[in-house]
Specification:
Layout (H helix, E strand, L loop, with lengths): L1 H11 L1 H15 L1 H7 L11 H17 L5 H13 L1 H4 L3 E5 L7 H9 L3 E5 L2 H10 L4 E4 L9 H11 L6 E4 L15 E3 L2 H16 L1
Parallel strand pairs: 1-2, 1-3, 3-4, 4-5
Helix pairs in contact: 1-2, 4-7, 5-10
Protein name: Response regulator
GO biological process, one term: phosphorelay signal transduction system
Keywords: Membrane, Phosphoprotein, Transmembrane, Transmembrane helix
Length: 206
C-alpha cells in the first residue's frame, strides 16, 4: 500500500522522487554525516548546535561575572570551532573543589569532543593522574582551605613527572596573580580559558 502511494506521488511530481531520495539518504547515513561535519560549527537543523554553544558560554560568563564583551565571546567560539580537531578526544582533568559551578565550561569542552574528568581535591587529582594520561589540566587555585592549593598540585605533579600543561582557572579576586612558573596560563575568563586550552593542546600535539 505504501509503495503504491509513493509511486503515485512520483508519477504526480518527478521532483518528489528527489525529495524522498534525499530524506532517505539523510536518515540512512545520519551518523557518518555527523561524524564528518565539524561538531561545533553550528551546522545543524535550525542552528540548535550554535545556540547551545552560545548559551553555555553565556552562562559561564554570567557565573564568573567576567568582563567578556560580545566580540571576545565570538572570537573564543570561533577558535573553538577552528580547533575542533584538537579538542576531539583530548583528555582534560578539571580540578575544582566546587565543580558544579563550572559545569558550563565543561559542557563546552565535551561538546567539542574532549573527555573531561573531575577531581575535587589535590589527592584525587594525583590519583587520577596515576591512572590516566591527560593532555591538559584545568585547576582552581584556592582549595581545601589553602589559598595556594593549585601551586601545591603543580609542585606534586612535577615531583611525580606528570607533565601535562596546567591552566589555572581562578576567581575574579585572583585574576591579578602572575602566571606561576611551570604553569601554562592563569585566567578568570571563560573565553581566555578556551584560547589557552586550544593553545596548550595544539602545542602538545605538534
Amino acid at each position: 500500500m505504501v509503495q503504491h502511494i509513493i509511486i503515485a506521488l512520483i508519477d504526480a511530481s518527478p521532483s518528489a522522487m528527489w525529495v524522498l531520495l534525499v530524506v532517505w539518504l539523510v536518515l540512512r547515513f545520519e551518523k557518518p554525516i555527523r561524524s564528518v561535519l565539524p561538531r561545533v560549527t553550528g551546522v545543524s537543523i535550525f542552528g540548535v548546535e550554535a545556540s547551545f554553544v552560545r548559551e553555555e558560554m553565556d552562562k559561564a560568563i554570567v557565573r564568573k561575572a567576567a568582563p567578556v564583551c560580545t566580540e571576545d565571546r565570538e572570537r573564543a567560539l570561533r577558535r573553538l570551532m577552528r580547533a575542533e580537531s584538537v579538542f576531539r578526544d583530548a583528555a582534560i582533568l578539571w580540578v575544582d573543589s566546587a565543580p558544579e559551578l563550572r559545569a558550563d565550561e565543561r559542557a563546552l569542552l565535551r561538546f567539542a569532543g574532549a573527555s573531561v574528568d573531575v577531581a575535587r581535591s589535590t589527592a584525587e587529582a594525583l590519583s587520577r593522574l596515576e591512572n590516566r594520561g591527560y593532555d591538559a589540566i584545568v585547576s582552581d587555585m584556592k582549595r581545601e582551605g589553602d589559598p595556594d592549593a593549585g601551586l601545591s598540585l603543580l609542585s606534586a605533579m612535577r615531583e611525580r613527572s606528570f607533565l601535562p600543561p596546567v591552566i589555572f582557572y581562578v576567581d575574579q579576586d585572583e585574576a591579578g596573580r602572575e602566571v606561576p612558573p611551570r604553569a601554562f596560563d592563569l585566567t578568570d575568563r571563560p573565553d581566555v580559558l578556551l584560547h589557552a586550552l586550544a593553545d596548550a593542546l595544539e602545542r602538545r600535539r605538534s
